[in-house]
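Annex B, item 7. Sequence and C-alpha cells for protein A, then protein B.
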Amino acid sequence: MRIVALAGSIVGSKTKTATKKVVEMLENKYPQHEVTLLDLADYTLEFSDGRHYFEYDGDTKYVTETIMLADAIIIGTPTFQASIPATLKNIFDLLPVSAFRDNVVSIIVTAGTAKHYLMVEQQLKPILVYMKAQIVQPYVFIEEKDIHRKEIINDDVVFRLERLVEDTVLLAETYKNLQANRDAKYDF
C-alpha cells in the first residue's frame, strides 16, 4: 500500500514536525507499506491553470502524480488567517474533482490557538468530501504550545498521532479489501 504524508505549507516548522513524526511512526510500525513524505517546501510548484494534472512538468507533475497513486494520504496543514494555506489549496486545485475517490485521507492541523479548530470542519473537510475522500474522522489538532524546538512535547499529541496512523492504515487496508471483494464479483 502507498501512503503519502503531505506537509501542506512552504513556511513554518510545526506542521513539518508533526508530519515527519507521522512518517517515522508509519515506517516503524508498518514497514511493509511504501511511505512518501511530500513537504511542499521542498518543491517548486506551478499555480493551477486548469490543465489536467498529468500535463504539468517537473515538481508539479511529481507531487500530483504521487498523490494520485496513493492509497492513503495524511494531510498536515497549518492554520493561516483562519484558513488553509494557499499552497495546500493549490494542490487541491491541481488535482481532478474525484482525486481522492477510493482513498483514505486523514488530517493533522497545527494552529496558534484552539480557536482555529473550526477551520477543519468548515473548510478542509468539505473540500475533501467534494473530492470524494474517505476521511478518518478523528483528526489531530496541535496547538503551538505542544511543539517546542521542532519536537512534540505533549505526550497526548503523540498518542493521538499514533492512533491516527493506526486508524489510517486500518481504514485503508479495510477499504482495499472491500474493493477487491467487490471487483472479484466481475469476470473482467
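Protein B:
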Amino acid sequence: MLTFSGIILGAKWIQHIGVIKVFISWFTTSVVSWKRKKTGFITSIALIFLGVIGIVTYSYLI
C-alpha cells in the first residue's frame, strides 16, 4: 500500500541504494563476463567506463 502511494519510492535514500546496487551489478557482470571469456577485455573496460559515467552523471544531477 505504501509503495503505491509513492511515499516509500519518493525517499532519496532508497533511490541512492538502488543506483548503488545497479552500479555494483553492472561492474560485477562486466568483470565476470570478461573472466568467462564472453566479452573481450576492451568491451569490459568500455562497459565499466559507461557505468562510471552513469554514476558521475547521477551524482551531478542530484
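Comment on protein B: DSSP finds three helices and no strands in the chain.
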